[in-house]
Amino acid sequence: MTQARTDDTATPAKAPDHTYDVVVVGAGPVGENVADRARAAGLSAAIVESELVGGECSYWACMPSKALLGPVLAQADARGLPGLERMTGGPLDSGAVLARRDSFASDWKDDSQAEWVDSTGTVLHRGHGRLAGERRVTVTAEDGRVTTLAARHAVALCTGTSAALPDLPGMAGARPWTSREATSAEEVPGRLAVVGGGVVGAEMATAWQGLGAQVTLLVRGGGLLSGMEPFAGELVAESLRAAGADVRTGVSVTALSRDACGVTLTLDDGSTLQADEVLFATGRRPRTGDLGLDTVGLAPGDWLTVDDTLRVTGSDWLYAVGDCNHRALLTHQGKYQARIAGSVIAARAQGRPLDTGRWGADSATADHDAVPQVVFTDPEATSVGLTLAQAEEAGHRVRAVDQDLAGVAGAALHRDGYRGRARMVVDLDREILLGVTFVGPGVGELLQSATIAVAGEVPVARLWHAVPSYPTISEVWLRLLEAYRG
After folding, report:
1. Which residues are noted in the entry as NAD(+)-binding (predicted)?
2. Are the C-beta atoms of 348 and 396 separated by less than 8 Å?
3. Average of per-residue pLDDT across 366-394
4. At the fourth CATH level, which superfamily is domain 171-282?
5. Cα–Cα distances in Å, from 329 out to 135, 138, 481?
6. Same CATH fold assignment for domains 18-57+105-162+286-366 and 379-485
């Protein structure tokens, strides 16, 4: 991609209306953390937001989706415990679930989030932010009024991503759901077609099937959750089918149409599928198309390439933090990057040296080596670091160690008929873990232990002395280590 321009050939003619040390574009959790860290270090900061303060995670992603999934997963756990049959035999109260979802999305009002920003001393500018040359950002308010902000030291772009819809005949007229509509829908559709077998597709298929929709999940590839170990997608697909969903792999949508009866999807084998709503969960694209990137020599709409301090390649003042840099499209990783970026910006502004070596305090190397992820399906699918295939492709000499979670006492106590699996990928030359995967009900809370083991490069021999409590699901660690020792 084109590198950022750092010359003064595009100096704005208009003097700035306000000047700050740092200007942040995007007031989601990533932008909030950049501004907060900069303010904590003594810099002045402004943050620009065109929608709701709090961003995608608060209103259309992490929080509402998990609020939808929580009762579904709790009911699945309860159905696996004798004595609760009468309490779990009927359908969920979808109205109560949706109302609770609304409360976690703050009814799509951002008053409390805006108050928090104000409490940090960061100045909030509402409107659409665009670069206007080096260290300049224009903010266009809803009424058309334009304000120009100048940054003494840095501008941080924290604009995230939006849903990427394929260019299919009839797409516009079909009015498909994206992740936003899927997490904010006001009622349960009778028939829901979900296109895409990644995290969003798998989670939303789980949620809406559990809330009473008849879900058909259409996956172009051979299985779900292709970025994880193959058994993760296999176990999730089996569970969805057992819950009543129709899961189809190796199938693509070629066209759509909508009429008074709903949506008709034409598939690549010539057959059709009828649904009341269709969700496309087929990927994300960076929200960089209308950011004024061309004013600093960058291509609008591109992912932004950064170094491990989150500074855009070729620039000494422009940072791209969170999803828009394509390093790890996860809220917690974006916040991790933001904490680093805010501290780095402050250190550079104050002339302090950086610690940017491997695992240095000012380096986002964990986005290369130890990215954790939880998929809140039934069963939960979690991973950190490399899969076996990824480790082998990277040239490591490795061994995969697997364990059936059903044989662990804590898992058997968690739910009758427990199904799950664990894998650790061991670097045989260094005797450390390169990756860990857990799949099973309730395993999301195990992942931090695996993340510490991978990020900390804890020797396998030392892990023997981290004794898991009995009887918990975490005892799987002992079983994995026993299998490795043989």
Report:
1. 196-203, 283
2. no
3. 97
4. FAD/NAD(P)-binding domain (3.50.50.60)
5. 26, 27, 31
6. no
The CB density around residue 281, as the number of other CB atoms within 10 Å, is 24
**pLDDT for residue 9:** 46
pLDDT in tens, 141-150: 999 999 999 9
Reference 444, options 384, 386, 367, 402; nearest CA is: 384
Q: What is the pLDDT of residues 45-86, one digit of tens each?
A: 999 999 999 999 999 999 999 999 999 999 999 999 999 877
Domain extents in the chain: 18-57+105-162+286-366, 171-282, 379-485
Given a cut of 90, is residue 438 above it in pLDDT?
yes
> Is 227 annotated among the ligand-binding residues?
no
User: Which fold does the domain 379-485 belong to in CATH?
Assistant: Enolase-like; domain 1 (3.30.390)
pLDDT of residue 86: 76
Does residue 121 have a known ligand-binding role? no
For 18-57+105-162+286-366, CATH gives 3.50.50.60
Stated as kind and residue range, the H or E segment containing 233 is helix 230-242
Does the annotation list 283 as a binding residue? yes
DSSP letters spanning 404-461: EGGGSHHHHHHSTT---EEEEEEETTTTEEEEEEEEETTGGGGHHHHHHHHHTT--HH
Q: Model pTM?
A: 0.94
| 197 annotated to a ligand binding site | yes
Kind plus residue range of the DSSP H or E element containing 146: strand 146-157
Is there a contact between 137 and 7 (Cβ–Cβ < 8 Å)? no
Confidence tier at 12 by pLDDT (50, 70, 90): very low
Is residue 14 annotated as involved in ligand binding? Answer: no
pLDDT at 443 over 80: yes
Cβ atoms of 362 and 356 within 8 Å: the answer is yes
Report angle CA 420, 424, 426 to the nearest 5 degrees: 165
- The answer to whether 341 and 321 have CB atoms below 8 angstroms apart is yes
Phi-psi region of 326 (alpha: psi -120 to 50; beta: other; left: phi over 0): left
Q: Is 202 annotated as a binding residue?
A: yes
**Is 203 among the annotated ligand-binding positions?**
yes
- Rounded CA-CA distance 346/350 in Å is 6
Q: What's the whole-number average pLDDT of the chain?
A: 95
Per residue in 314-363, pLDDT (tens digit) is: 999 999 999 999 999 999 999 999 999 999 999 999 999 999 998 899 99
Tell whether residue 408 is among the known ligand binding residues: no
Name the nearest CA neighbour of 227 among 278, 183, 268, 283: 283
> Hey, what are 75's tokens?
């009911």
In this structure, what are the phi and psi dihedrals at residue 450, rounded to the nearest 5 degrees?
-70, -40
The torsion region of residue 238 among left (phi > 0), alpha (psi -120 to 50) and beta comes to alpha
Q: Is 342 annotated as a binding residue?
A: no
